[in-house]
Specification:
It is built from one helix and 19 strands. The protein is an all-beta fold.
């Protein structure tokens, strides 16, 4: 999972540094044959004008200018004068820094996400309204759609369904997660008719196959992820609360 850092640069010469230590061998020393598997996702947002520089360090003290790559593709750059998304492969560097070299006006927001073993460095690019998603419905079916993005697969890492009255589910399975609109079913579950005045269903998602011990459902790159809760009968309202990350 990514470690995410955010900061508002309100003055020139402000900087944000994240650490992304390289791989080590059994003795705790950097193995000559091992490059750092870490990747840093970089997002600049807000209303501002000026120049932001990118640099990295092999010892955490002295920094040198480096080039970052636009997401999902483009020409590498060592500085930016506007908003955008970039990434940087840490390799033998242990720290990465964003530095507000020149401020003309405004205040940029810098988001950095560091991940070693998965694609969650892309979470730097996600707005909170994309990470935490809610859908509500009364009586009828409730459908939550996480919109497709060309270069990203979605992982639903948290799912909760609630009703405000006892449900009498019309169809089974009454909870489905699909890979795209009308696509294959990735996960299905029968929610029980429980709770005299409503119920909160905390959904236990399956373990991921990456050996991390984390749970979630992963879709296909470029596909939406669609969560549908069937009609709970006449009267009850349903809420779907989900959390997504890049996969």
């Amino acid at each position: 999972m990514a470690v995410i850092n955010r900061e508002l640069f309100s003055a020139q010469d402000m900087s944000l540094t994240v650490f992304c230590g390289p791989s080590t061998n059994a003795s705790g020393l950097i193995a000559a044959s091992q490059a750092n598997s870490g990747r840093v996702g970089i997002n600049l947002s807000g209303t501002w004008a000026g120049t932001i520089n990118f640099s990295a360090s092999t010892d955490g003290v002295k920094f040198q200018a480096i080039a970052v790559t636009p997401f999902a593709s483009g020409t590498n750059v060592s500085s930016a004068t506007g908003n955008g998304n970039w990434f940087f492969d840490a390799q033998n560097f242990v720290a990465f820094r964003v530095y507000f070299t020149t401020k003309t006006s405004g205040n940029p927001i810098v988001t950095l996400a560091v991940a070693n073993n998965d694609a969650t460095w892309q979470d730097a690019f996600l707005a909170s309204t994309t990470v935490y998603v809610n859908s509500q419905a009364t009586s009828g079916a409730n459908t939550l759609t996480q919109a497709a993005q060309t270069n990203r697969a979605w992982c639903c890492s948290f799912l909760q369904v609630s009703t405000n009255q006892r449900a009498s589910w019309v169809t089974n399975p009454n909870l489905k997660i699909q890979d795209g609109s009308g696509g294959s079913t990735l996960f299905a579950l029968d929610l029980m008719d429980v709770g005299s005045s409503g119920y909160i269903y905390d959904i236990t998602l399956p373990l991921l196959d990456d050996g991390s011990g984390r749970r979630g459902i992963v879709g296909t790159v470029g596909n939406a992820m669609v969560i549908t809760v069937a009609s709970p009968g006449s009267g009850p309202k349903t809420n779907i609360n989900a959390k997504f990350r890049a996969a």
